[in-house]
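Appendix B: complex inputs.
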Amino acid sequence: MQPTVALKRTPFYEFHRQLGAKLVEFAGFEMPLRYTGDQREHLAVRNAAGLFDISHMGEFRVRGRQAGAFLQRMVTNDVLGAEVGQAVYSPMCRPDGGIVDDLIVYRFADHWMVVVNASTTAKDFAWLKEHVPAEVSIDDDSDDTALLAVQGPRAAEMLRGHIPDAALALGTYRFLEGRLFGAPAIVSRTGYTGEDGFELYFDRAHAAPVWEGLMAAGGAVGLEPVGLGARDTLRLEMGYMLYGNDIDDTTTPIEAGLGWTVKFDAGDFLGRDALLAQKQHGTLRKLVGFALEGRRVPRHDMVIEAEGRPVGVVTSGSFSPSLKQGIGMGYVEPAYARLGTPLEIAANGARLDAKVVKRPFWTHGSRRS
Amino acid sequence: MSFPEDLRYTAEHEWARLEDGVVTVGITSYATDQLGDVVFVELPEVGRKLEAMKPFGVVEAVKTVSDLFAPVAGEVVAVNDALSDNPALVNQEPFGGGWMIRIRPADAGAFAKLMSSDDYSRHVEEQHA
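Resulting structure:
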């Protein structure tokens, strides 16, 4: 197969190659799938610390007196309720309630930063531009921004002395600006793993010293570079959404169990009427988590059955390295969404027994709440 | 990429070794590299009759799943029970301890018609081109 478009590379591409990573196409980027092994990388994050290159994600800067009000209208969560130095996770919806993307909004003293999925960066930018008032500006800084995540119970310990001391005291979803191995950086206590940790934004010109500095600093705690494979299993164990799998333009936050991110009392926003109707009248499907009883593993797009008929579809499925069993999420008819409901996953001829279970699947993470 | 010369191969990345009239089957190092960590191998019972290039089992990795295809038709005469407790053997020793089943071929000539090591190397390179 010949790629028709040249893949983009992050500023850490040469490090991935030197480490012998298996590289794959993801959202138009050539990204590390794994360095040593999915389970080893996964467990390094659960037990010590992992380093993730997530520079493929998109960063927009939104400026202007009405920037906050504009974002408040574009997303479902209450970003105006955030303090300076606070970040907010939110879906961004269409008027019909479908999810354009799930993203993180950072409130700075004089502007806002919006961090979006790699696969939706162009779509999101166009969507925001389409709705932006004249007095608000949006800039796409994605190509210039390097983004690394350090995640794991020993993440803070290994970063001591390399990030401002104040960053070590940050609560979850708080951030500050400071130096990181000499580079001006945003140090954010956020992540996608369920563990304590930081996401570090800086100009791509500083990519090499920061990567090398982090790898050296992490040696003592057992830091491992972690690819997209383990990134996916870590987030799935937490029940976190993967845009394009679990949520997309055709699913809503209410269906996906993201009702906690929809603030009907915080003013008007795109999708409010549709989502309010769903909240009041219910939905035709609900996202559930389920665990398999045998040793097989559910996979994206497999049909979910109950009482001998199809009742839904798997949106994410994987072996859980922490729990040592197959876990997944999928949309089912609401009658089958209750905890403990038996389901069957249709796997290429076989029927795999599963049961609806509580999310997160993994409850022993070091993430602060 | 090169592969053991004393083995034969399928386009679906199984290898086959003929010894004393019995064909041992596993998956290649290329297959395990594509799959990542193997966490479960579902194998048939001894005595089952297999058809050539029909699925005989399933290999579950953390991130993906793949059917296993019988290189030759015949009867299963042994399965590798060690994989039940230690599926990682498939990654660690794909051409050795990670073997999966042994087949008594229905047709003695079928083995010789499988891909040679050179043919298989070319096949893998074509998939990567």
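Chain A has a mean pLDDT of 97.
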